[in-house]
Amino acid sequence: NYTALSYVWGDANDLTTISTDGRPLRITTSLECALRHLRDTKRALNVWADGICINQQDETEKGRQVQQMGRVYETAAHTVIFLGEGNPAANSLLSIILSHSDDDSPIDDEDRIKALNYILQSPWFYRVWIFQELVLSK
C-alpha cells in the first residue's frame, strides 16, 4: 500500500540531501519540497517517487524501471500530483474546486482566472509522462 508521487524534477543540478533509513540520499530540491508537503506527522506514509525508488546512477535499472512505470501508478493506493508550492490565490481556488462550491468565495472572478492560469502554467502539465501517470492512477 503506497502513494505514487507525480511531480516535476526541476533542475537536476539543484540537489539537497535527505535521510532515508538513516542514510543520506541526494535528491532534487523539487522532490524534497514535494515530500515535505506530503509529510504526515501522525502516521507513516509509503511514497513511491522515481527520484528515490529508481537508482538514477544505473542506466540499465532506469531502463527497466521506466518500462514498469505504468504498473507503479496502476497499483498505487492513490497518486498525489504535486504542482509546486503554489500561491495564496491558487490555493484558495483549489479549495473552492475541491469543495464543489463557490459560495462565500474569497476571490473574485478575475482573481480566479489568474489563479487558474497560474495553476495551468505549472511545468507538470508540460511533462511527457503526465498522461500515463494521470490516466493509470486510481
Number of strands: 5
Note the beta-strand portion.
Answer: 15-25%
The quaternary state of the protein chains shown equals single chain
Low-confidence stretches: none
Structural class by secondary-structure content: alpha/beta
User: In percent, how helical is the residue content?
Assistant: 40-55%
Q: Which strand order spans the largest sheet, edge to edge or round the barrel?
A: 4-1-5
Distance between the termini: 13 Å
Q: How big is the Rg?
A: 17 Å
Order of helices and strands: EEEHEHHHEHHH
Biggest sheet character: 3 strands, parallel
Tally of separate helices: 7
Q: Let me know the average pLDDT.
A: 86
Secondary structure blueprint with pairings:
Elements: E1 3-6, E2 15-20, E3 23-28, H1 29-38, E4 47-48, H2 50-53, H3 59-67, H4 69-75, E5 78-81, H5 88-99, H6 109-120, H7 130-136
Parallel strand pairs: 1-4, 1-5
Antiparallel strand pairs: 2-3
Helix pairs in contact: 4-7, 5-6
Organism: Hyaloscypha variabilis (strain UAMH 11265 / GT02V1 / F) (Meliniomyces variabilis)
InterPro entries: HET, HetReg/Transcr_Mod
Pfam family, one: HET
